[in-house]
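Margin note: ligand = flavin-adenine dinucleotide.
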Amino acid sequence: MKPTILVLGGGIGGVSAARELSRKIGNEDGINLARILVFEKEKSSLYAPSLTWMMVGKREEKQIYGDLSDVELGGIEVIHGEITSIDPEKRTVASNGTEYKGDYMVISLGTKLTDRHDLSRYGHNFYTSGGASSFYEELTQFEGGEIAVAVSSLPHKSPVAPYEAALLIDEFVREKDIRHKAGITLYTPETEPMDFASEEISEKVRRIMRQKDISYKPEHELISAGKNRLTFSTPGGQGATAAVPFDLLAFTPGHTSPDIIQEAGLTGTSGWVEVDMQTLETSYDNIYAIGDIISLPIGEGKMLPKAGVFAQYQADTVAHNIARKIRGKKPDKTFEPKGSYILDQGDKASKVDGSFDDGNLTIKTSSMIRHWEKILAEKTWFLKNF
Ligand SMILES: Cc1cc2nc3c(=O)[nH]c(=O)nc-3n(C[C@H](O)[C@H](O)[C@H](O)COP(=O)(O)OP(=O)(O)OC[C@H]3O[C@@H](n4cnc5c(N)ncnc54)[C@H](O)[C@@H]3O)c2cc1C
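Resulting structure:
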């Protein structure tokens, strides 16, 4: 009997896993050695790294979504609809009133985004395409005043995105020749930019922000929001708070694991799915989890950042090992948290690169080539998968 693999989620991790599974198992058009079912509630798949470009009018909605029907090759079938429950004991999922059973399961359902302090009444959640595009509409009308980029809570996916957002907004208002009339401030509960990295990297990012005259407010924990005003608890002593005005607000939402994952008892003490660091297998046999939904400790109490680059490497690792198991061979690939992350500034970009578990990371100086590297990564994603 042909094995069935259930891939939960058709975002960056899920699409990568399905594609890699099909390739590594040896599915071809007409000869499918395994059935790969991808479950996705949306009609198309969002490439979130391009949302920061959408905020400043460099991308439109149609450019940052992939049509999931294009993924249906090599034994891959897309089941459209919301997964309503998961039973890890039976290795089944329910969607559209039907129960699907798999021999293997790869969970890549990402994060549930929450609206903390009712922020969407006052600003734009740029972690969604709706929020990124409504921010851009308001930005085009902006003639001067205070622009706030606020990180509403930790953890959030893409540790770089709020910095990139502030830098791209800076470029936009400079090009509009209103930079002298615009204040740009980034508020975050983090102690340092990208605090998973080294002090040197944090300082370089701070320097880039200073050069662009972007005000950086770390250790600012959002406690309430209102019309044109945010209130933070601040590091200035016990009980210190600051109420700050803004005219235009972009914010990151709260992040939790999806309800169905919690209901299935798949979350650990971290609140996220806990997996074997090397194989990404959960405590259930043949059930793997990858991408933003997992929490991987990388030492000193830090967690691996939630990033698409890791979701893709994890998809590759899991697909390799499932393909070997199907052939009756021992799984032999382990996930290594190595990779690179680009911080785009518009005309140029810098790159954080290296090994995330031993802190052996470097930051490459800003250059136009790195900006093109980020564009190339986006183009490759769509060409390879859709
Ligand atoms: C603004 C921004 C900028 C970013 N920039 C970068 C970057 O430069 N580099 C980088 O590496 N990463 C970046 N990221 C992070 C990257 O997008 C994520 O880490 C990546 O998408 C994680 O992949 P995933 O498969 O875990 O989750 P997702 O891509 O979020 O996919 C999860 C999928 O599951 C689906 N789903 C959820 N629940 C259900 C359900 N019940 N039923 C059916 N389907 C469901 C969702 O609709 C979604 O399609 C950025 C993210 C944002 C928001």
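The chain has eight helices and 25 strands.
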